[in-house]
Automatic annotation (TrEMBL):
GO MF annotations in UniProt: cysteine desulfurase activity; iron-sulfur cluster binding; metal ion binding
Superkingdom field: Bacteria
Keyword Nuclease carried by entry: no
Needed cofactors: pyridoxal 5'-phosphate
EC number: 2.8.1.7
Domain Aminotransferase class V: 4-370
Gene from which the chain derives: iscS
Designated name of the protein: cysteine desulfurase
Catalysis: reaction(s): (sulfur carrier)-H + L-cysteine = (sulfur carrier)-SH + L-alanine
C-alpha cells in the first residue's frame, strides 16, 4: 500500500539534503564548539554560519538568535524568563495557543501569581484587536502579550505587525509563537516589532530536537537553563551542532523555494476544498482555513457532516496519515480548545473535525485518494446508522 502523509503541521519529512548535511557534520565537525582547538572552532563556525543566515533573513542581529531544543523550549524560555527576569505581572493571551504556551502561562499564574487575561476569539477564530487594545489600556501592570502568528489547527493568521504596534504604543512586551510560519513566510523583524518569537526545524523538513528563540536584545531577557556560557549565556548546554546545521539547510531550502512551494501548496489546498465540497455533501471548513486571505496555505481544517471518533484510525488503515488536531493533544478524547472555540455544541456533537496539512510534496492524486477514502467511510457510517435505526 502506498502511504499518504497529510499531517505536515505535526511534522514534516526530512529533506535528503538536510540528512546529508547533518551526517557530514556528525562525521567531520564533531568537536565541542566551546573547545578552543581547531576541532572545536570548526564546529563553532558551523553554528555561527547558520545563525548569521537566519538573522539576515529575519533582519535582526545574530546575537538575537538563540538555538534551543525545540519550539516548546523557546516558548517556555520566553514566557518564564519574562516573568522571572523582566518583572512581567500580567499576560494577555488567547485560548487558541498551542499547549506549550497555554500550559506555560497557567504555570506562571499558579506558581508566580501572574494575572492572565484571555481574549476569546469569535467563531471564525479571529482575535479582536480592539479588545486587545482595551485590555492593554486597562492596567499599569508590566504586561506580556502572547499571541501566535498562525494557528496550528485552523491555520488562521494574525496581523502580528499590528499587534506589535499596539503593544509598543502601550508599553507591553510582545511574544508570538511563530512555529507554524517560520520558513513558510517571509518575516522581517525590522518591520514587525515583535520582542520574542519561536521556531522549530521539524515544521519545515528539518530535524526534530532543534529550534531557536528570537529574543530582541533591547528586552534584556535572560535564560532559564543555567550552566556554561553557550548561546551568549542565554541557553547553557553543549550545542546540537548537527541539528543546527540541519535546521540551517532546511531553512535555506525553504527560503530559496518559498515562492514555488507557496504556490504549489495553495493550489493543492484550493483543490482539496473544491473536491471535498463537491464529493462530501454537508462538509464545512473551520476557522478561516478555506479562505485565501488570513490563512496559512499549509493547513485546511474540515468538519465532516457525521460523527466518527475513529476517523483517524480508519484513514490510517487505508494508508492515509492525518490528524484531528494538534499532535500534542491527539491522544486526548476531548475536543481541543481550538475546536471548542470555533464549533457550536451541535457541530461538536454531530460532526468530525479533520486537519489536513500539506507540504510541497503533496500531490492532487493524494487528495483524490483522501476524498475517496472519506466517501467510503461516510457510506459505512450511513449504513451503520440505518442498521441501528432498523434494529
Ligand atoms: N507551537 C506551535 C504552533 C506548534 O504547532 C508546535 C508543534 O506542534 C509547537 C509550538 C511546539 O514545537 P516543538 O514540537 O518543536 O516543541
Amino acid at each position: 500500500m502506498n502511504k499518504i502523509y497529510l499531517d505536515n503541521a505535526a511534522t514534516t519529512p526530512l529533506s535528503e539534503e538536510v540528512i546529508d548535511a547533518m551526517v557530514n557534520t556528525m562525521k567531520m565537525s564533531f568537536g565541542n564548539p566551546s573547545s578552543t582547538h581547531s576541532f572545536g572552532q570548526e564546529a563553532k563556525i558551523c553554528i555561527e554560519n547558520v545563525r548569521r543566515e537566519i538573522a539576515d533573513c529575519l533582519h535582526v542581529t545574530p546575537a538575537e538568535i538563540i538555538f534551543t531544543s525545540c519550539g516548546t523550549e523557546s516558548n517556555n524560555m520566553i514566557i518564564k524568563s519574562s516573568v522571572e527576569h523582566l518583572g512581567v505581572e500580567r499576560i494577555i493571551s488567547s485560548p487558541l495557543e498551542h499547549k506549550c504556551v497555554s500550559e506555560c502561562i497557567l504555570d506562571m499564574k499558579s506558581r508566580r501569581g501572574v494575572e492572565v487575561n484571555y481574549i476569546r476569539p469569535n467563531e471564525k477564530g479571529d482575535i479582536d484587536l480592539h479588545k486587545l487594545e482595551e485590555l492593554l489600556k486597562a492596567s499599569d501592570k508590566k504586561t506580556l502579550v502572547s499571541l501566535m502568528h498562525a494557528n496550528n489547527e485552523i491555520g488562521n493568521l494574525l496581523d502580528i505587525k499590528k499587534v506589535a504596534e499596539l503593544c509598543k504604543a502601550n508599553n507591553a512586551l510582545f511574544h508570538s509563537d511563530t512555529v507554524q510560519t517560520m520558513a513558510h513566510m517571509n518575516l522581517d523583524f525590522s518591520d514587525i516589532q515583535v520582542d520574542f518569537a519561536s521556531c522549530s526545524a521539524h515544521k519545515f523538513h528539518g530535524p526534530k530536537g532543534i529550534g531557536f528563540a528570537f529574543i530582541r536584545k533591547a528586552t534584556g531577557l535572560k535564560g532559564i537553563i543555567t550552566g556554561g556560557p553557550q548561546e551568549r549565556s542565554l541557553r547553557a548546554g553543549t550545542e546540537n551542532v548537527a541539528g543546527i546545521v540541519g535546521l540551517g539547510k532546511a531553512w535555506e531550502l525553504s527560503l530559496k523555494n518559498m515562492v514555488q512551494y507557496t504556490q504549489h501548496m495553495q493550489e493543492i489546498k484550493d483543490y482539496a476544498v473544491e473536491r471535498l465540497s463537491a464529493e462530501i455533501s454537508g462538509i464545512k471548513f473551520n476557522g478561516r482555513s478555506a479562505e485565501k486571505e488570513n490563512s496559512l496555505y499549509t493547513v485546511l481544517n474540515a468538519l465532516l457532516p457525521f460523527k466518527n471518533p475513529l476517523i483517524g484510525l480508519q484513514l490510517d488503515m487505508k494508508g492515509i496519515a492525518i490528524s484531528q488536531g494538534s499532535a500534542c493533544s491527539s491522544g486526548a478524547s476531548k475536543p481541543s480548545m481550538v475546536m471548542m472555540m470555533v464549533l457550536s455544541e451541535d457541530e461538536m456533537d454531530n460532526g468530525t473535525p479533520l486537519r489536513i496539512s500539506f507540504s510541497h510534496m503533496t500531490t492532487k492524486e493524494e487528495i483524490d485518494a483522501l476524498v475517496l477514502a472519506l466517501k467510503e467511510i461516510s457510506k459505512d457510517v450511513a449504513i451503520e446508522k440505518t442498521n441501528l435505526e432498523h434494529r
